[in-house]
Amino acid sequence: MAIACDVRALDTQVEEAYRRLLPGQRELIERGKLQWKFDRHPAARGVLAVAHAASSIVGMIGFVPACLKLGCERVAGFQALDTVVDPGCRGQGVFVKLGQAFYSAAPELEAAAVFGFPNESAAPGWFGKLGWIRLGTPPFLIKPLRAGYFVRQVLGGARGLFDTLPLSVGGEPEGKDRAVRIRRFDARADTLWHAFSTNIACAVERTHDYLNWRLVDHPTAQYDTRGVFAADGEMRAFVTTHVAAKHDGVIGYVMEAMALPEAADDLVMLLRLAIAEMRAAGVDAILAWASPNAPNHRAYRRCRFLPLPDRIRPIHLYFGVRPFTAQARARMATDRDWYLSYLDSDTV
């Protein structure tokens, strides 16, 4: 059976293939997640590498656009996700053909790089035959709240005696009255991001249009954002969180935690407020992504977040990139170059 590949925008045939090849996403598709991912991103329209045999789609990889900060410059990038090959066509090199089809289209798309977070099954293909640079794993941090979750994760125990035993105590922080709920971001978030990211070599741009797309207009997930503002209206800091029943527990996520360099205390207050509210809501543990060189890492440590050991990570992901330009190769070659947070995850 001859298999050919092309790169295209989201269309009705691709949407049907999602329903057939990724049945677990059907409910999300009905709620508009495909259009949100591929058609409504503020940077550009997304594309998919599609493998087809005759008139049937037998494999896909999605590529969602990203405006990437490379030092003081801005370039186009894409995040790879939703990789799937029909079980009947596995072992025929379909995955590699899909990746190579996107590589061939990259110049026309003006893509400087593609990046992503492949799981254990996809990682060998990306880092091997498709030539991605392996940049380790996402920089997980954890704030344990309840002992029972860790008894189950580490010792394999059942729910019971330790479920509600607290591992973290404390009330709402002093200064919590300064925290304002943010319903929608405006240009003040751009000023905050530019100050926060001065020394970041590489990251997805977190300007207000991106933040609204990712956090406010998301069709299938709800996020809570609190901010601190100066008397003149300047945004000094914000923290966005999400709570979900996942990984055999109730997990809180810090999606983003950002502050002006001089507003570290405001950021710590917002994190402590989020921790107190999630503790009261029965959350078992809080997860975040922040590398030791990230501008917000010290704030997490002040709130007693800890590095998450591999053996109790809820999922095993890897982080990697395939640069297409000399500029991208120079700016994103190591994990220390990148700023990551849970905003970069496509599953939370």
Task: Walk me through what this model shows.
With 348 residues, this protein is α+β, with helices and mostly antiparallel strands. The chain folds into two domains: 4-133, 3-Layer(aba) Sandwich (Aminopeptidase), CATH 3.40.630; 140-316, Aminopeptidase (3-Layer(aba) Sandwich). Helices cover 29% and strands 28% of the residues. The chain is built from eleven helices and 15 strands. Strands 1, 2, 3, 4, 5, 6, 9 and 15 form an eight-stranded mixed sheet that branches. Strand 2 (47-53) and strand 3 (56-70) form a beta hairpin. The protein is globular, with a radius of gyration of 21 Å. The relative contact order is 0.16. The mean pLDDT is 93.
Quick gist of this model?
With 348 residues, this protein is an alpha+beta fold. Helix content is 29%, strand content 28%.
List keywords for this structure.
single chain, 348 residues, alpha+beta, Aminopeptidase, eight-stranded mixed sheet, seven-stranded mixed sheet, 11 helices, globular
Topology (SSEs and partners):
Layout (H helix, E strand, L loop, with lengths): L3 E5 L3 H10 L4 H5 L2 H7 L7 E7 L2 E15 L2 E13 L8 H16 L1 E6 L6 H7 L3 E2 L5 E5 L2 H9 L24 E2 L6 H9 L5 E3 L3 H9 L7 E6 L5 E12 L2 E11 L4 H17 L4 E5 L7 H6 L3 E2 L12 E4 L2 H6 L17
Parallel strand pairs: 4-5, 12-13
Antiparallel strand pairs: 1-2, 2-3, 3-4, 3-9, 5-15, 6-15, 7-13, 7-14, 8-10, 10-11, 11-12
In CATH's first tier, which class of the largest domain applies?
Alpha Beta
Q: What is the name of the CATH topology of the largest domain?
A: Aminopeptidase
Unreliable residue runs: none
The value of Rg in angstroms is 21 Å
Structural class, by secondary structure, is alpha+beta
